[in-house]
Amino acid sequence: MSSPPQFQNVDDDTVMVGPVDKDAEGVLVTGITGYIATETVKVLCDYGFKNIRGTVRSVEKGKTQLVKLFRYAEEKGVTIELYKADLTDKRAMTGAIIEPMKNGSPITRILHLASPYPANPKTAEEVLIPAIDGTMVVMEQAASEASKVKQVILCGSIYGLIADAEAKFLTFTQIGGKKMVNVDEKTYGAAKYCSNGEFDPSTLTSVAKTISPAMSYPISKAMAEQSAWKFWKENAKQKFHFCTILPGAVWGISDSQVLSKGQLGTSMSYFGAMLNGELNIVPKYCNAICSVEDVAEYHVRAIGNAACNGHRFTSFPEFLWFSELGPRAQKVFDTHRKETGEKLMWYNPKARSIAHCGRMEGTMVPVKKLFGKTAPYFVAKTIEKIGMLPPYLVEPWGVQWHLDDAWKTEQERIMGHKCKPIQDFLLRMLKNYNAIMLEETPQASTGPARRGGQKSAIPTIEPLDSNPTLLKVNGSESL
Description:
Layout: E1 26-29, H1 35-46, E2 51-56, H2 59-65, H3 67-75, E3 79-84, H4 90-98, E4 107-112, H5 125-142, E5 151-155, H6 159-162, E6 171-175, E7 178-183, H7 204-208, H8 216-236, E8 241-246, E9 249-251, H9 269-276, E10 281-282, E11 286-287, E12 289-291, H10 292-301, E13 312-314, E14 320-321, H11 325-340, E15 345-356, E16 359-366, E17 373-374, H12 377-385, E18 401-403, H13 405-415, H14 426-440, E19 450-451, E20 454-455, E21 461-464, E22 467-473
Helix pairs in contact: 1-10, 4-5, 5-8
């Protein structure tokens, strides 16, 4: 694999970052057991980075969860070192950044990928404070005198662009006769709480009281990024290079299959809902779907790339309506079926069968027909009120976002990489998802699902010799 392009730094106000010594320098990846982080470490290995440290809450659990990644790294001659450090533990995070690795390699690059996400928060503070404080700990320690850090790359979110956005802060454009919100590098989410793309963490306590718990997650992503920008501009431009990567909803699994089953839950929830046909009626919400491989590529290609300094990057190709997901997937699956004769199946953990000794397990089920329909506003609003739909999927109802063409082109030039639309990685994601689930589920059923010992309507499944994870179905209504 070729190295990412190297660009000259033309900003005289910042420190010059020289070439990366991949054999001697250490890369710190926060939250290494996370979905995006694990795939990013895989790409670091591919690009020849030999010394990687990852923060974990439990070293023992981390070793168990990352067995596949450690095996992959060993084959590449890469050292991965786990360091126990909770994101909000300043003392532990200081050690992770300042202390050299056991082989003596100093930490010179930080990929900050960890972000706390408390389940069912009762107050906005439960989400906002750890997200922002955790980011500030990384930035402050990277800028300390004892630090050897040359570069920090922060994984933000699409919500850094569109969270709680107000029209007066946005630029509109006419495209194809439609009025859209043009999203460029100077577009910032949560603008009502921030100023010129910066957020002052000292105001967090008072601001948090004005935000509902249900809206706290997207706003926390915007505030964390803008807090980091404010700190860097005021305190660290002479110390290290800094940029942010802002992915949309992240899907996909690389062919290396370094992820474990336990790392797929949250990221694959919408994927499973789509395959089940549960996304037939969706909010009129415009978002972005991106490949985890593209997100990982952007983080790694930014390392040592001086042209990235001081800039923001998306890692998705476009915005699209939720209602477009089904039709795009349907077209991919129909084309595949027409060309190969294969009817697609997927491993559904919710489709239970009594496999052995009464133990309930998931099974392979047909991919259902997919449609794209938008729910009426009053229906979505009703579902939101009873707590079954996040308000940030309802409040921007009907707002169509557009990724600024010039910004997208410039990102592709700097990164030397184009992000893939969902239809280009959907089949591979399905194949790799099935492979991981079947490998890690003891005696996983690939036969008819059963309830109480009775056969269901799901037909007999025969593995294809050419691809054991895409299965041929006899007499099925599947795709």
